[in-house]
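Attaching the record inline, Q. Sequence:
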Amino acid sequence: MTTSDPKKAFANLTPDAILDSVEAQGLACDGRFLALNSYENRVYRIGLEEGPPLVAKFYRPGRWSDQAILEEHHFTLALAEQEIPVIAPIQDEEGASLHRQGPYRFALYPCRGGRPPELDNPHHLKQLGRFVGRIHALGAVRAFRWRPTLDITSYAVEPRAFLLDQGFVPAHLVVAYESLTRDLIGQLEALFGRVQVPAIRLHGDCHPGNILWGEAGAHIVDFDDARMGPAVQDLWMFLAGDRVEMTAQLADLLEGYSQFRDFDPAELQLIEGLRTLRLIHYAAWIASRWDDPAFPQAFPWFNTDRYWEEHVLSLREQAALLQEPPLVWG
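Structure, as predicted:
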């Protein structure tokens, strides 16, 4: 099996191949490298003989076209030009940010450290809101051409079909899963048909793990899932707790956000719908990568009866939450 097979994408990405790729860009490695927390791609901290370490990101073959990767790079570079604290790829002397070495495509990034934000800290939430508002102000200027849109088909219909067709759902739960997800998709179609808001360029996966909070403030990392979608997609994953807690968190987020971009309160109706889409899509994402040796190691709880029973329970809870009134702002 060659590395062109997505299921064996990184089989030959050895330490020598990693260091050779970086050195092909005219950089002298000091032999140190550390695998960072990434599963879809492979990401490494690389030590250099001169200067601070950098991060090398090797893209999973078959996932994105070159045009889609470069579109993400151009977006983050444009954000960085406006001094928005994102981690943009390093460009070489010719302005290139996407490189090839053998079968691999990769990009190099500055190395930044930090911790996740404190979601019970109003200051952190207001700052996050300001950052996301600034990202969206630029994101709304034009549309992505090569990147997809967050929609029901790609986040629910296709993932549901994959899980059922490939036999991941245990036999004793198939009927319940089929019926429940069919009903959920109907609810989602009604919701997104009723609440139609503009799609803008998004981070796409803006959760606390993609925020690095350090002494100099926060950095937003990993735009690998950047796509078109509603603005609230980049906000709702910072909300946690009960309804009262989430309402307070939302107020802090949107106080900061509104300093740079208007927010349409109608989008709040989409939060539980977007959460439902993420739950269905996430299960199918892990399943679609199950032949990658890194995934059974990273997600040992997946594909067990207990996991699928809890997954069905979570989806039932979402069916109920979709009937609840949305959060209120202001």
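The first strand starts at residue 29 and ends at 35. The domain at 122-321 is CATH 1.10.510.10 (Transferase(Phosphotransferase); domain 1).

More tomorrow.
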